[in-house]
Amino acid sequence: MRAAWQLVVGLWCVAIMVLRAKGGPRGPYWSWRTETAFGIDRSVSRRTKLEATKAYSRWVALTRRL
Questions:
Q1: For residue 2, is pLDDT > 70?
Q2: Which pLDDT score, from 0 to 100, does residue 14 have?
Q3: Are 3 and 58 in contact (CB under 8 A)?
Q4: Cβ atoms of residues 52 and 10 within 8 Å
Q5: Contact 58, 10 (CB under 8 A)
Q6: For position 66, what pLDDT does the model report?
Q7: 33-44: per-residue pLDDT in tens?
Q8: Per residue in 9-40, is it b (16+ CB within 10 Å) or e — as a string?
Q9: Sign of CA dihedral 23, 56, 41, 32
Q10: C-alpha distances out from residue 23 to 34, 37, 39, 64, Å
């Protein structure tokens, strides 16, 4: 249950970050984040990106509490 709550809080925080970032989710900041997370290889599967997003969201929720 705790992991699910951390995921919800983390996704909320990430959504706020997307809204605050200039250029939206396809802007330069998020392009840079994608390149640093996955490299320039475009063959990374959608599932891998989703799992990484979930892990990042949980990390955001945990660091937010600190």
A1: yes
A2: 85
A3: yes
A4: no
A5: yes
A6: 67
A7: 888 888 887 788
A8: bbbebeeeeeeeeeeeeeeeeeeeebeeeeee
A9: positive
A10: 15, 19, 21, 24
Encode pLDDT of 19-64 as tens digits. 888 777 788 888 888 888 888 877 888 898 888 888 888 888 888 7
Q: How far apart are CA 41 and CA 23, in angstroms?
A: 23
Three-point CA angle 35, 23, 15, nearest 5°: 80
- Cα separation of 14 and 54, whole Å? 10
pTM of the predicted model, to two decimals?
A: 0.70
The amino acid occupying position 7 is L
| Integer Cα distance of 27 and 30 in angstroms | 6
Alpha helices in the chain (DSSP H): 2-20, 28-38, 46-65
